[in-house]
Amino acid sequence: MHALQFTAESSSNGVRERDFTVGDVPGVLWSPVPGDDPAPLVLMGHGGGSHKKHRSMAGRARLLVTGCGFHVAVIDAPGHGDRPRTALDEQDIAALRTAQAAGEPESPIVVPYNARLAQLAVPEWQATLDALQDRPEIGADGPVGYLGIGLGTAIGLPLVAVEPRITAAVFGLMWPDALVEAAKQITVPVEFALQWDDERIPREDALALFDAFASKEKTLHANAGKHIDFPRFEADSAVRFLARHLGRAVASTA
Amino acid sequence: MHALQFTAESSSNGVRERDFTVGDVPGVLWSPVPGDDPAPLVLMGHGGGSHKKHRSMAGRARLLVTGCGFHVAVIDAPGHGDRPRTALDEQDIAALRTAQAAGEPESPIVVPYNARLAQLAVPEWQATLDALQDRPEIGADGPVGYLGIGLGTAIGLPLVAVEPRITAAVFGLMWPDALVEAAKQITVPVEFALQWDDERIPREDALALFDAFASKEKTLHANAGKHIDFPRFEADSAVRFLARHLGRAVASTA
User: Fold this and answer.
1) Which end of chain A has the lower number of beta carbons within 10 A, N or C?
2) In chain A, how many domains are there?
3) CA A157 to CA A247: how far, in whole Å?
């Protein structure tokens, strides 16, 4: 197994940010300052075409670190962020741009593309979790949650299906095609988001994916608006959901 | 118009509770202590067979008063709480109990029964709101929200459809039959709750009612479980929704 190697460190406004690698996978770990006592860990998956330090990741991490005292880790998905793209990545991305420009359906491209990334990323996440749990401020026995929308769901949903260390998860905004069978294996509490007027993911498909989770506690949040209108208050909701299930109070929400 | 008459008063743990009447309709007003400055008002509708001071009402009121500094008013629905039942009420309730005991569908009884109560209650609520807004600690210009589930939706939804003073509303757990046309008139932000495995209200019917709201901002919260399993954390969510739209921060949520 690969150990976690820190490559850079900074701090601002009560959040410690450490870049790391596990093998050749680059990641970032955000932690409370001070933060020597073991605290719950949230793994976050970034969206398609995005990266580990996108502001949507940094913003959610700040809420989780300063609001709940959690650690938050994000790794770059294959072909994203600081990771090289393969010829296959370039092909898939080019095909996606062509379909989008032509106004053709994306799902025939996005679904297999993201499923391929998930096959690579699930073992990467598991190795990263092994390495993170070797850190004394995280530890092997603490609660672990997952939060990821879009590509973060395409990767995170099969991860949670096979990873018993993750005990609560937030997903959303993804086609069900490659995910329904994995969803049927998930029994931990789930919060799932969809856009009621999503022009890319049909409503019935998104409802079917929510329906597939075997979780006794699952909550659907459906908001009016198109795919891009996904509201910012769902980030606050995800934080409260994770705080409830990973066992910390939220210090302050507005 | 009838003025608001206070009939009893008490205080505990930062919440002032005043019983009142407007005409022959009894109500309760919960307020912050101290609470002389004008603050937003939330109208709450209780559930079927319940009353204005049921613990679900008192609990939500405490969250809104101590968490947000809001005033909260509840009135007894016709034939509920301290109000007399008519012969028609007795007939409807007896028919409902017979259907429930026989395991027959409730909606053919509940829907027209609750629609009849709504016809009576909407003008009662409007007169109550008039009288409440005459109070200096509420005032005629402050924001007004509505929160009611079950019968509280059967009454509140047609109220919000005709009452422009109400600018945000939380509804849920009610059949659409008598409400879809009113929902199409509603344009203010709405949070709507349903139970994903509701054995009384078909899922498709509840989704259709959410779909009917004309609101640009509307959020559906669907939770796994049967009708009775409606989770307590939805009360916290309703408080945050109202705080967001009526313009106050939530002091503390856990």
Assistant:
1) N
2) 1
3) 22
B252 is a domain residue:
no
Q: Distance (Å) from the C-alpha of residue A178 to the closest C-alpha of chain B?
A: 23
Taking the Cβ of residue A224 and every Cβ of chain B, the question of whether any pair is shorter than 8 Å is answered with yes
pLDDT tens figures, B7-56: 999 999 999 999 999 999 999 999 999 877 889 999 999 999 999 999 99
Whether residue B131 contacts residue B3, with contact meaning beta carbons closer than 8 Å, is answered with yes
The neighbour count for residue A207, using CB atoms within 10 Å, is 19
CATH number for position B62: 3.40.50.1820
What domain range includes position B19?
4-246
Q: With contact defined as beta carbons under 8 Å apart, do B148 and B84 qualify?
A: no
Tell if the CB–CB gap between A253 and B250 is shorter than 8 Å. yes
For residue B9, being part of any structural domain is answered with yes
Please check whether residue B39 lies inside any domain of the structure.
yes
CA distance B245 to B238: 11
Does the residue B254 lie in any domain? no
Nearest by CB to residue A221, choosing from B211, B219, B249, is: B219
Contacts A196 to B, Cβ<8 Å = 210-211, 218, 220
Tell me what pLDDT residue A138 has. Answer: 94
Chain A contact for B216, CB < 8 A?
A: yes
